[in-house]
Specification:
Elements: H1 2-14, H2 18-26, H3 28-58, H4 64-69, H5 80-108, H6 113-130
Length: about 130
């Protein structure tokens, strides 16, 4: 461990700080976390796009300004399908952001690879299954 610290210190002093990033991606637990985290972020963005598109198609807007812009104040209303999609997106934000924060910390604590993958997969399957 002391040689790792010396290598890191010398890399920072020499301006080669990329060594730490390379070592993080060589860490299989972190690579697994990065994979599942990336897929969940893509899912969250796709759900946000879907919510917006559904609002436009159903003409169900929250703000009167948006409703007026897209046809009239009568379109300032709630639609059950839009609300379901919006709640799913809110659920993603409430769960995926903490997963990213805690998963990164967990990955850097050098847990057992199989156990870490199981934790990541359980969360991933739960989030995908909930959508």
């Amino acid at each position: 461990r002391s040689s790792d610290l010396a290598t890191y210190t010398s890399a920072v002093r020499d301006g080669r700080g990329s060594i730490q990033a390379r070592e993080m991606m060589e860490n299989e637990v972190f690579a697994s976390f990065a994979f599942y985290g990336t897929v969940l972020i893509v899912k969250m963005y796709l759900l946000a796009i879907l919510t917006g598109q559904l609002r436009l198609r159903r003409k169900a807007f929250i703000n009167p300004e948006d409703a007026i812009k897209h046809g009239g104040i009568e379109f300032c209303r709630e639609d059950p399908d839009v609300e379901r999609c919006r709640r799913a997106h809110n659920n993603d934000m409430e769960n995926i952001y903490p997963f990213l924060f805690l998963g990164a910390i967990y990955s850097l604590m050098e847990p057992n690879l199989m156990i870490a993958k199981i934790h990541f997969q359980i969360f991933f399957i739960g989030q995908i299954g909930r959508a």
